[in-house]
């Protein structure tokens, strides 16, 4: 009679769903996209190739990859009228709010959503291509700088960096190592099973909402500091430690003190109860990029000492708290010159192929039902209406 049903967002009665896209083993720290280990994809693949793998289930042939790149190039500019949206945002508007709105607006600017495989594949690529342009445009307009258009001669990642940083006085020099690092960064973020934002995409998509508005919901869900906003929260935390001269010992004590709101951002994970395999790769990338650009980042040193202290501490060991993907990702993004308020946007661009793949898996399932979780009712039992004059 309490209406008790497990959380059932159309995922069956156990609060879990069936999916063939990403495999995670939280105890062993394993992550595979369509069966391929993340370590091999990070070493050998590109973000565009990994996006194709996630969405179609197979690595592309050379011909498929070429065709994909042509579409990504053709779809890279935005509808000129979308620029008016940006110009009316206050300069300090957070780019995640702008991105969520712009992706939702795509439903109005690109209304043709033809439910044919070839047409839907183009829709996926339109999203993957334009999200880069939208992100870079938000950054440039927030600085009052001219918008840089995508170039047909640059690959997916180089185009993004050029749109972010090209300038009439100092033309952007595309650095192959940075382009490689950005490919790896986005590969590491491309999908992660049924995380908060992917669940939001599956729940919203289960109502047969158009893909643009569904992805927009995923972007909003990712924004929170406990989820995709953690990369920005980690760097804010490290900067705070640096500025205040907090000792590592202080930080570990604060993280353990339940009365203190301080949490070790970038640590802990709902599924990984060991080192997040992505964090290992991200940490190495941080070292490589910083040594290449010959820049020391005091925040990297703080992060490494924090990690070392936490991994030795009984509190963190007992609770299986290890660095997650966000702990070092901010360091990598800083080394690439990405501003802190764009960090979660970078996560969203990376996660887009995973959201699309998970949405596609759901909507192509003839058995799909609308998400309709139930509850354990804890409110009043039945009682009568009280006229206002009789209320105290
Ligand atoms: C992402 O789901 C995904 O896959 C997400 C993601 C993806 O790719 O989509 O991997 C991306 O979101 C990574 C996580 C980024 N968030 C953070 O780094 C924020 C800091 N981490 C925590 O807020 C927390 O660890 C979560 C939110 C990540 C996980 O939360 P859980 O599993 O619900 O853990 P919990 O809050 O129940 O904590 C269990 C215990 C608690 O102590 P007790 O109540 O048992 O005494 O561990 C403690 C917590 O207080 N704890 C921490 C901690 N994380 C958990 N204590 C200090 N510092 C932390 N970071």
Automatic annotation (TrEMBL):
Q: Which CDD domains match?
A: EcCS_like
Pfam families named in the record: Citrate_synt
Xref: InterPro entries: Citrate_synth-like_lrg_a-sub, Citrate_synth-like_sm_a-sub, Citrate_synthase, Citrate_synthase_AS, Citrate_synthase_bac-typ, Citrate_synthase_sf, Citrate_synthase_typ-I
GO molecular-function term, one example from the UniProt record: citrate synthase activity
Q: In which pathway does it act?
A: Carbohydrate metabolism; tricarboxylic acid cycle; isocitrate from oxaloacetate: step 1/2
Has UniProt tagged this entry with the keyword Transmembrane helix?
no
Query: Which residues are the active-site ones?
Result: 269, 326
Q: Which GO terms describe its biological process?
A: tricarboxylic acid cycle
Q: Which domain of life is it from?
A: Bacteria
What are the UniProt keywords, alphabetically? Acyltransferase, Transferase, Tricarboxylic acid cycle
| Gene3D superfamilies, per the entry | 2.20.28.60, Citrate Synthase, domain 1, Cytochrome P450-Terp, domain 2
Keyword Transferase attributed? yes
Q: Name one GO cellular component term.
A: cytoplasm
**Recorded catalytic activity of this chain's protein:** oxaloacetate + acetyl-CoA + H2O = citrate + CoA + H(+)
Recorded hits in NCBIfam families, A to Z, give: cit_synth_I (TIGR01798), PRK05614.1 (NF004126)
Q: Which family does it belong to?
A: Belongs to the citrate synthase family.
Cited PANTHER family: CITRATE SYNTHASE (PTHR42871:SF1)
UniProt name for this protein: Citrate synthase
Native organism is Desulfobacula toluolica (strain DSM 7467 / Tol2)
Gene, per the UniProt record? gltA2
């Amino acid at each position: 009679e309490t209406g008790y049903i497990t959380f059932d967002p159309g995922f069956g009665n156990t609060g879990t769903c069936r999916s063939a896209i990403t495999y995670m083993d939280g105890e062993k720290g394993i992550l595979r996209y369509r069966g391929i280990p993340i370590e091999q994809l990070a070493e050998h693949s590109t973000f565009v190739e990994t996006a194709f793998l996630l969405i179609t289930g197979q690595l592309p042939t050379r011909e498929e990859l070429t065709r994909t790149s042509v579409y990504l190039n053709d779809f890279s500019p935005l509808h000129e009228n979308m620029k008016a949206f940006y110009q009316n945002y206050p300069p300090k508007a957070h780019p995640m709010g702008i991105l969520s709105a712009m992706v939702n607006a795509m439903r109005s600017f690109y209304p043709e959503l033809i439910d044919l495989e070839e047409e839907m594949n183009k829709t996926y690529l339109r999203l993957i291509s334009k999200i880069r342009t939208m992100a870079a445009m938000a950054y440039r307009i927030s600085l009052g700088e001219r918008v840089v258009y995508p170039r047909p001669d640059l690959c997916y990642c180089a185009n993004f960096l050029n749109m972010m940083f090209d300038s009439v006085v100092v033309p952007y020099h595309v650095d192959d190592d940075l382009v490689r690092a950005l490919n790896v960064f986005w590969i590491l973020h491309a999908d992660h099973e049924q995380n908060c934002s992917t669940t939001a995409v599956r729940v919203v998509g289960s109502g047969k909402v158009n893909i643009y508005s569904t992805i927009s919901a995923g972007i909003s869900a990712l924004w929170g500091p406990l989820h995709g906003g953690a990369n920005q929260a980690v760097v804010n935390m490290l900067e705070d430690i640096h500025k205040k001269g907090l000792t590592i010992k202080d930080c570990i004590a604060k993280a353990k003190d339940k009365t203190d709101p301080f949490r070790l951002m970038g640590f802990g994970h709902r599924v990984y109860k060991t080192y997040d395999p992505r964090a290992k790769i991200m940490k190495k990338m941080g070292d490589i990029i910083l040594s290449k650009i010959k820049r020391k980042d005091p925040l990297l040193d703080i992060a490494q000492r924090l990690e070392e202290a936490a991994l030795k501490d009984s509190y963190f060991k007992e609770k299986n708290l290890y660095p997650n993907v966000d702990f070092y990702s901010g360091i990598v993004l800083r080394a690439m010159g990405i501003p802190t308020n764009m960090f979660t946007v970078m996560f969203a661009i990376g996660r887009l192929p995973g959201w699309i793949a998970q949405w596609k898996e759901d909507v192509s399932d003839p058995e799909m039902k609308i998400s309709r979780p139930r509850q354990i009712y804890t409110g009043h039992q039945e009682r009568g209406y009280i006229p206002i004059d009789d209320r105290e």
